[in-house]
C-alpha cells in the first residue's frame, strides 16, 4: 500500500494569496524624526505587537461582516457553488472511507490515537456538531434573491460551514466540552497565533470570500494548571472547563470585565450546548448579617462569586468528618466543643481550614510555636504557658477543679513537648524570647510542688532534666545574663529557673558552679546593683542569694568557690534596713539571705574569719535584731551564731585552722546575746525559740570543752535565765504546744493531697525542731560526768523541768508511726529534725528514773532504725550504747564464754559501722552542726532516693535509714568475703574466723530480738521469712572451718552450722516461729509476714531469683547435710501453697530421694498456720508425686501429713470444697483403688480415716486419723462403688475398727 493510500488527509491545494498581500512591517517603521528608533517595550507580548501591526496594515480584518452585494446570476451561482462543494465533499469522503477500509486494525488504532492527540478527547462530539451544522445549513439556508441587500446582523445566519473531515469509524458520542460551539460561533476575531492556514481550496467562483470567526468572550478562555513546556508542540488555546465539576482541573482565577464576574457557573443541570447568555449579578438583595460568610465575601471579596472554591473556608461544614479535637483559647484555657462551634470569628480563634470550631489544637500550637512570624510564635508560646500551668496544677492536685480530662495521664509527656518548644525559642529576641523563658519557667519551676528546703536534693524531674540538656541551657542562660537584652522580669524568671535547677541535684549544682562566667554574671546582674539605685535599674533580687546558698550547701567544693565573692555581699549587712537605699522589706530579705549564706559556709568551717573582720558591723546588727520584729531575721542570726560558735569550739577543724577562736566568741558575749533574743517572743513563735535554744546549746557544749571547770559558770548563768520559763513560763507553753501540734499533724498525715502533705511535713519539721533543740539544751545543761549515758552517774535533779512523761509517750508513738515508710527523698528533710529529736531523747531517757537497761536497749534499736541520712553520728552513738549495755553480765547464760574470749562485739562492730556509713568519702552534715561535721562533711544536702537506690552498696553515700535486716549484715559480708569492702579495710588487730563472726552475729540478733519483743516493739524484730532467710545464709557459708568446739560426730574442720554454739543459736532463733511456739512469743504474730522472695531481695537483688538460691540450698542439703534437723526444717517454708508449684516440684520430684531424710515433726514446722500447706487442695501432677511417696514409704512427719491430706482430699467427697464432674469422680476411684491395692496397712488406714474440716482448726496427727462420724458410712459406700464388694469387705475393719 502506498503512502498516499494510507493517509487520512485528502489532496492538499495551495491557497490563493491575496492580491493586496501586506509585507511585514519593519521594527523601525515609525522611526521619529530625530533619527532614533522608537522605544520597544519588552513588556508587550508578541501577541500584542502582532495585533498592533495588524491594525496598521492595509489588509486588516474587519470585526463586522461586510455587506454582501451579489451579482445578477446569484441564484445560479449559488446552485453551482452548492453543487461543486457537495461534489468535492463527497469525493473526499469516498476517498477517505476507501483508505480506512484498506487499513489494518493496528493502523486504524494508530491513526485514531493521533487524531485524539491532536483534537483532544472531545473530537467525536466536535465532529458530530460540525456534521449537524452542515446538514442545517444545507436544508435551511435561504436563497438570496438578486439585488437584495442583507443586513449585518443577519449575515451570520447565512455564513457557510467549512467541512473539515468526515466522521471516523469507531468514534462514539459521549460527554464533551459543551461550552465549545460550532466553528461559525467561535468568534469574529481570532488572534493570529490561533488561526491555522486552511488546506481547503477556495471555490473558483468565490475567490474573494474569506473565513471569519466570532469574537472571543472571557468565558470562552480557561486557563488550566501549568505544565512543563514541550518544545515539540505549539501552544494552542484550550477549551473552557466542562459544565460538570472535574477534580483534575485547577482554576487559577476568572477573567473580570467591567468589575463583574463573567465566568459561567458550573451547573450539572445545564443542558448540552446551552447558549443562553450569562445573567449579570444584581445588588438588589438585602444586606446579610454581619460576621456571616456572605457578609465577609461582600465586604472583603466583592468580585469573587459565591460559589468560588477558594471561598469555601468561610462556609460551615454540613457534617462532621472527624471527632472534634480539644482546642484552646489565647490564654491556654480549653474551649468546650459545644462552645467552640458557636464562638464568633472576631475573637481571632478561627485560624484554620475548619472554620466551624474556634481555638487551637495542640498540634496547631506546637506547629505555630515554630513559626517564622514573631507575633504568631509569641502568641503560641503564651498559649503553652497557660496549658502548662493547668497541667501542672492537675498533676499536683487530684482535686483540681479545672482539670482537662482529655489530657489526664498525659501530663508528663506534654510537659516534655512544651519544654522543648520553649527551649527552642530561648535565644530569640523580643517577645518570643520573653515568652520562651516563661514557658521554661512554668515547666520547671512551677510544675512541681517543691519544699522550701535548701538541704535536700529534690530530684523531682529526672526525665525533664534529660530533655533540658542542662549544660547547654546553662550556657544559654549565661549569654542572656551577660547581654541583659531582655526585660528585668524575664531575667528574674531565668534566675528562678537556675535556682530550681540548683535544687534538683548536687550534680546539676556542680554544673552551675563550673559553667564559665555564670556565677559572676548572676552576682553582677542581681546583687551588685548600683547604690543608690537609679530609677531605671532593677533592685537586687534575694533569689540570687538563695541560689548561692543552695550551691554552697551542695558540696564543699562549691562552698569554697563562693568564699571570694562573699566579701561583696557584706554591703547588705553594713547597710541596715532602716538606712538602706532599698525598700525596708527588700533590705530585710537581703540581710536574712546573706546571714543564711554565711551560716552555710560556716557549716563547712569556711569564711568564719568575717566574724572578726566585720565585728563592729555584726555588733550593730545584733542591736538592730533585738529591736526588730522580724522572726526570720532572728532565726537567721541565731543560726549564724550557732555555726560560728561550733567553729570556735575546735579551731583546728576550720578551714583554714584557727579562723575563729573561742576567746573571741567569749569576748563578744554571744552566749548572753542569744538569750537576750528571748525578750518579746511569744509562744506562737516556736521557730525562733528553736533557733535560740540551739544556739545556746552550741554555746554550752563549747564551754564544756573550752570553759573553766567544764563550763560550769556558763551552765549556771544559762540556767538562771531559763529555769523559770520552763517551769511555768513561755518556754513551757512552747514545748507543750509543739507536742500537741505534732500529734495532731501526724494523725492527719494520711489521705491528704500532695500539696497539703508537703505543708504538713513542713509544720512537722518545725515543731520537731522545737523539741529536739529543747532536749539538746537539757543535755547541754547536765554536768559533764553525765553526758555519757553508758557510765552516767546518778542525776540528782534535772537542769530544768520538761514534760518527761509526755515526751516518752510521744517517742513511743513516733517510732511506731507509719510516717517513716511514707517519706522518701526530699520529704526526709522535713522529718530529719524528728529523727534528731528521737536521738536526743534516747540520751535523755537514760537519766529518767525507771528506765531499765533492757528498755533503753529496746528504745535504741527502735530509734536506730528511724535515723535518716546525715544522722550517722547519732546512729554510731546509739549503736555504741546498745553494745555497751549487752555485756556478759547482762546476757547471762545466753552468751557462750567463747564469744567474749574472741573479742565479743568487736568482731562484728566493723560490719555494723559499715552498714551505717558504707562510703567514707561522703559525709552528710547532721541537722545540728558539730565540730566533727565542719571538718569532715562533704555536703549539707540529703541525697535523693534515686541516688541511694541506683548505686552499689559500697558507693552509696549513706546506709541510713537502716534496712530492716541490718542485724544480719555481718553474715552477708561473710558470704561475699571476696568482694566485701569491709574485709579490705579491717584493722590489723582484727583476727576472727567465720565461726566467730557467725556466733557474735547470731547472739546479737537473739539478744535484741528478745528485748524488742518483750517491750511489744514487734515491728522492729525480724519477720519469720527474714529470720528463715538469715539462717539459710548461715548454712550456705563455706565448709572446712576450724572448730574450737567441734561436733562429737564429725572432725575438727567442719561446716559452720555444725558448730555447737552456732547450731544452738540457730535453733533458738527459729523456735519462736514454729507451730509449737506460743503466739505471744512470735515477733510476727501480730504483723503480716512477707514471703521469702521479698525477704531475699536486700541480699540477692532483683537479678537473682530466690528460686535459684533455693535450688542451690537444696542441692547443698543433699550433699552435706547428713539429715541435719535445722537444715531440713529450712527446706519446708517454700513448700507452702502460696509459693509457685516449682518449689514443691523440685523437692517432691527432682530431689525425691532426700524426702527420707526430712523428718521434721508437724509442730516444729516453721510456719504461721498449717493451713498454708493444706489449702487449696493440690490437683494434677503433684497428686501422683504425693501418692508415690506414700506408697514407697519415703516420707514421715510433716511431709507425710501433707501427702496424706492432698491424696485423701482428691478421693473423698466430704473433703472436697467443690463439686466435681464424672471424669474427676473416676480419677478419685482409680486413686483409691491404687492406694488400697499397693499401699501398706498404715497408708491405707491413714488415707481412709483422714479427716479435716477446712473451716475449723487443723487437727494434727494422730488425732486426724481417729475421729468418727456419719462421714465414715458415706466413705464406705463410696469405696464399695469404687472397689467392689470383695475389696469393700476387707476395708470394713479399717472404717469401723
From TrEMBL:
Domain RPAP1/MINIYO-like TPR repeats: 991-1208
Disordered: region residues: 1-111, 259-294
Residue ranges annotated for the RPAP1 N-terminal domain, each copy included: 90-129
Subcellular location: Nucleus
Domain RPAP1 C-terminal: 326-391
Keyword field: Nucleus, Transcription
Any GO BP annotation: transcription by RNA polymerase II
Entry keyword Transport: no
Segments of skewed composition (Basic and acidic residues): 77-88, 272-285
Protein name: RNA polymerase II-associated protein 1 C-terminal domain-containing protein
Annotated organism of origin: Suillus discolor
Amino acid at each position: 500500500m502506498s503512502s498516499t493510500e494510507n493517509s487520512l488527509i485528502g489532496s492538499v491545494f495551495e491557497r490563493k494569496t491575496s492580491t493586496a498581500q501586506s509585507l511585514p512591517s519593519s521594527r523601525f517603521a515609525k522611526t521619529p524624526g530625530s533619527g532614533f528608533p522608537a522605544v520597544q517595550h519588552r513588556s508587550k507580548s508578541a501577541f500584542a505587537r502582532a495585533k498592533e501591526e495588524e491594525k496598521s496594515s492595509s489588509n486588516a480584518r474587519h470585526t463586522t461582516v461586510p455587506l454582501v452585494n451579489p451579482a445578477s446570476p446569484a441564484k445560479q451561482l449559488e446552485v453551482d457553488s452548492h453543487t461543486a462543494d457537495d461534489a468535492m465533499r463527497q469525493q473526499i469522503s469516498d476517498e477517505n472511507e476507501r483508505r480506512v477500509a484498506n487499513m489494518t486494525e493496528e493502523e486504524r488504532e494508530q491513526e485514531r490515537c493521533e487524531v485524539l492527540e491532536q483534537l483532544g478527547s472531545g473530537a467525536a462530539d466536535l465532529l458530530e456538531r460540525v456534521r449537524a451544522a452542515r446538514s442545517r445549513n444545507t436544508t435551511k439556508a435561504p436563497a438570496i434573491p438578486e439585488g437584495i441587500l442583507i443586513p449585518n446582523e443577519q449575515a451570520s445566519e447565512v455564513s457557510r460551514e467549512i467541512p473539515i473531515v468526515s466522521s471516523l469509524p469507531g468514534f462514539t458520542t459521549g460527554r464533551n466540552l459543551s461550552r465549545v460551539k460550532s466553528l461559525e460561533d467561535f468568534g469574529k476575531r481570532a488572534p493570529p497565533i490561533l488561526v491555522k492556514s486552511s488546506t481547503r481550496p477556495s471555490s473558483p467562483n468565490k475567490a474573494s470570500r474569506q473565513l471569519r470567526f466570532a469574537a472571543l468572550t472571557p468565558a470562552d478562555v480557561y486557563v488550566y494548571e501549568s505544565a512543563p513546556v514541550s518544545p515539540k508542540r505549539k501552544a494552542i488555546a484550550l477549551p473552557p472547563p466542562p459544565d460538570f465539576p472535574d477534580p483534575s482541573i485547577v482554576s487559577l482565577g476568572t477573567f473580570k470585565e467591567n468589575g463583574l464576574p463573567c465566568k459561567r457557573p458550573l451547573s450539572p443541570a445545564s443542558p448540552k450546548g446551552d447558549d443562553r447568555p450569562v445573567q449579570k449579578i444584581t445588588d438588589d438583595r438585602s444586606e446579610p448579617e454581619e460576621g456571616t460568610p456572605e457578609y465577609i465575601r461582600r465586604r472583603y471579596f466583592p468580585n469573587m462569586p459565591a460559589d468560588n472554591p477558594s471561598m469555601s473556608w468561610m462556609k460551615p461544614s454540613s457534617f462532621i468528618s472527624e471527632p472534634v479535637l480539644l482546642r484552646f483559647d489565647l490564654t491556654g484555657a480549653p474551649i468546650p466543643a459545644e462552645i467552640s462551634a458557636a464562638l464568633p470569628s472576631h475573637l481571632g480563634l478561627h485560624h484554620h481550614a475548619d472554620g466551624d470550631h474556634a481555638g487551637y489544637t495542640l498540634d496547631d500550637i506546637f506547629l505555630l510555636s515554630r513559626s517564622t512570624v514573631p507575633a504568631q510564635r509569641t502568641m503560641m508560646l503564651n498559649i503553652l504557658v497557660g496549658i502548662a500551668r493547668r497541667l501542672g496544677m492537675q498533676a499536683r492536685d487530684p482535686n483540681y477543679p479545672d482539670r482537662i480530662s482529655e489530657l489526664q495521664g498525659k501530663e508528663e509527656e506534654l510537659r516534655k513537648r512544651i519544654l522543648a518548644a520553649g527551649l527552642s525559642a530561648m535565644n530569640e529576641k523580643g517577645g518570643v524570647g520573653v515568652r520562651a523563658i516563661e514557658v521554661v519557667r512554668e515547666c520547671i519551676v512551677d510544675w512541681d510542688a517543691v519544699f522550701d528546703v535548701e538541704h535536700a536534693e529534690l530530684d523531682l524531674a529526672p526525665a525533664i532534666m534529660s530533655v533540658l540538656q542542662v549544660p547547654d541551657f546553662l550556657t544559654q542562660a549565661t549569654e542572656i545574663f551577660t547581654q541583659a537584652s531582655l526585660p528585668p522580669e524575664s531575667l528574674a524568671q531565668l534566675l528562678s529557673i537556675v535556682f530550681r535547677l540548683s535544687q534538683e541535684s548536687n550534680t546539676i549544682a556542680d554544673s552551675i558552679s563550673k559553667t564559665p562566667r555564670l556565677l559572676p554574671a548572676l552576682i553582677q546582674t542581681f546583687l551588685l546593683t548600683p547604690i543608690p539605685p537609679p530609677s531605671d535599674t532593677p533592685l537586687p533580687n534575694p533569689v540570687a542569694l538563695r541560689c548561692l546558698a543552695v550551691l554552697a550547701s551542695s558540696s564543699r567544693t562549691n562552698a569554697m568557690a563562693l568564699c571570694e565573692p562573699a566579701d561583696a555581699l557584706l554591703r547588705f549587712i553594713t547597710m541596715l534596713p532602716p538606712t538602706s537605699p532599698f525598700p525596708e522589706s527588700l533590705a530585710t530579705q537581703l540581710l536574712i539571705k546573706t546571714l543564711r549564706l554565711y551560716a552555710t559556709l560556716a557549716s563547712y568551717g569556711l569564711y568564719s574569719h568575717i566574724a572578726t573582720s566585720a565585728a563592729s558591723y555584726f555588733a550593730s546588727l545584733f542591736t538592730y535584731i533585738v529591736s526588730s520584729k522580724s522572726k526570720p531575721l532572728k532565726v537567721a542570726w541565731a543560726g549564724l551564731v550557732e555555726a560560728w560558735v561550733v567553729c570556735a569550739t575546735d579551731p583546728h577543724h576550720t578551714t583554714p585552722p584557727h579562723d575563729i577562736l573561742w576567746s573571741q566568741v567569749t569576748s563578744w558575749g554571744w552566749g548572753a546575746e542569744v538569750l537576750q533574743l528571748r525578750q518579746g517572743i511569744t509562744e506562737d513563735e516556736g521557730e525562733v525559740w528553736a533557733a535560740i535554744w540551739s544556739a545556746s546549746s552550741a554555746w554550752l557544749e563549747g564551754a564544756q570543752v573550752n570553759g573553766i571547770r567544764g563550763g560550769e559558770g556558763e551552765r549556771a548563768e544559762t540556767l538562771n535565765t531559763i529555769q523559770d520559763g520552763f517551769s511555768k513560763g513561755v518556754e513551757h507553753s512552747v514545748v507543750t504546744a509543739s507536742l500537741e501540734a505534732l500529734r495532731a499533724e501526724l494523725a492527719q498525715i494520711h489521705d491528704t493531697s500532695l500539696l497539703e502533705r508537703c505543708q504538713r511535713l513542713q509544720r512537722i519539721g518545725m515543731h520537731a525542731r522545737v523539741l529536739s533543740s529543747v532536749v539538746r539544751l537539757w543535755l547541754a545543761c547536765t554536768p559533764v560526768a553525765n553526758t555519757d549515758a553508758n557510765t552516767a552517774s546518778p542525776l540528782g535533779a534535772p537542769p530544768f523541768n520538761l514534760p518527761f512523761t509526755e515526751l516518752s509517750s510521744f517517742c513511743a508513738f513516733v517510732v511506731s508511726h507509719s510516717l517513716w515508710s511514707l517519706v522518701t527523698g526530699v520529704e526526709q528533710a522535713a522529718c530529719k529534725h524528728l529523727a534528731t529529736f528521737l536521738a536526743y531523747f534516747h540520751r535523755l531517757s537514760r537519766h529518767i528514773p525507771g528506765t531499765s537497761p533492757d528498755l533503753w536497749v529496746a528504745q535504741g534499736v527502735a530509734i536506730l532504725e528511724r535515723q535518716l541520712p546525715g544522722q550517722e553520728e547519732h546512729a554510731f552513738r546509739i549503736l555504741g550504747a546498745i553494745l555497751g549495755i549487752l555485756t556478759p553480765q547482762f546476757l547471762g547464760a545466753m552468751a557462750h564464754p567463747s564469744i567474749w574470749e574472741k573479742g565479743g562485739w568487736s568482731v562484728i562492730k566493723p560490719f555494723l559501722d559499715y552498714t551505717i556509713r558504707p562510703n567514707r568519702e561522703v559525709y552528710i552534715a547532721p541537722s545540728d552542726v558539730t565540730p566533727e561535721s565542719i571538718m569532715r562533711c562533704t555536703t549539707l544536702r540529703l541525697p535523693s532516693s534515686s541516688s541511694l537506690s541506683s548505686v552499689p552498696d559500697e558507693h552509696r553515700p549513706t546506709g541510713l535509714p537502716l534496712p530492716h535486716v541490718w542485724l544480719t549484715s555481718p553474715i552477708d559480708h561473710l558470704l561475699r568475703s571476696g568482694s566485701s569492702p569491709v574485709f579490705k579495710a579491717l584493722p590489723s588487730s582484727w583476727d576472727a574466723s567465720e565461726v566467730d563472726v557467725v556466733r557474735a552475729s547470731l547472739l546479737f540478733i537473739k539478744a535484741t530480738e528478745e528485748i524488742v519483743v518483750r517491750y511489744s516493739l514487734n515491728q522492729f524484730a525480724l519477720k519469720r521469712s527474714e529470720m528463715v532467710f538469715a539462717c539459710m545464709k548461715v548454712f550456705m557459708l563455706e565448709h572446712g572451718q576450724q572448730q574450737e568446739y567441734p561436733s562429737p560426730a564429725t572432725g575438727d574442720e567442719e561446716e559452720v552450722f555444725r558448730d555447737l554454739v552456732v547450731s544452738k543459736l540457730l535453733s533458738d532463733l527459729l523456735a519462736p516461729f514454729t507451730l509449737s511456739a506460743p503466739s505471744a512469743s512470735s515477733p510476727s504474730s501480730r504483723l503480716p509476714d512477707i514471703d521469702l522472695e521479698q525477704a531475699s531481695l536486700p541480699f540477692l537483688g532483683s537479678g537473682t531469683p530466690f528460686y535459684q538460691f533455693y535450688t542451690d540450698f537444696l542441692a547443698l542439703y543433699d550433699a552435706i547435710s547428713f539429715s541435719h534437723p535445722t537444715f531440713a526444717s529450712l527446706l519446708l517454708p517454700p513448700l507452702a501453697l502460696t509459693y509457685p508449684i516449682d518449689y514443691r516440684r523440685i523437692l517432691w520430684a527432682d530431689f525425691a530421694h532426700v524426702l527420707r531424710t526430712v523428718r521434721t515433726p508437724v509442730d516444729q514446722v516453721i510456719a504461721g498456720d498449717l493451713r498454708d500447706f493444706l489449702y487449696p487442695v493440690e490437683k494434677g501432677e503433684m497428686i501422683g508425686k504425693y501418692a508415690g511417696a506414700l506408697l514407697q514409704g519415703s516420707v514421715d512427719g510433716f511431709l507425710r501429713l501433707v501427702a496424706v491430706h492432698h491424696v485423701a482430699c482428691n478421693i473423698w467427697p466430704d473433703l472436697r470444697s467443690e463439686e466435681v464432674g464424672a471424669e474427676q469422680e473416676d480419677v478419685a476411684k482409680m486413686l483409691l483403688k491404687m492406694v488400697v491395692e499397693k499401699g501398706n496397712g498404715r497408708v491405707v488406714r491413714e488415707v481412709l480415716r483422714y479427716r479435716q474440716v477446712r473451716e475449723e482448726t487443723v487437727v494434727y496427727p494422730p488425732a486426724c486419723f481417729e475421729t468418727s462420724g456419719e462421714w465414715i458410712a458415706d466413705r464406705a459406700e463410696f469405696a464399695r462403688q469404687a472397689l467392689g464388694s470383695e475389696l469393700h469387705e476387707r476395708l470394713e475393719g479399717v472404717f469401723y475398727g
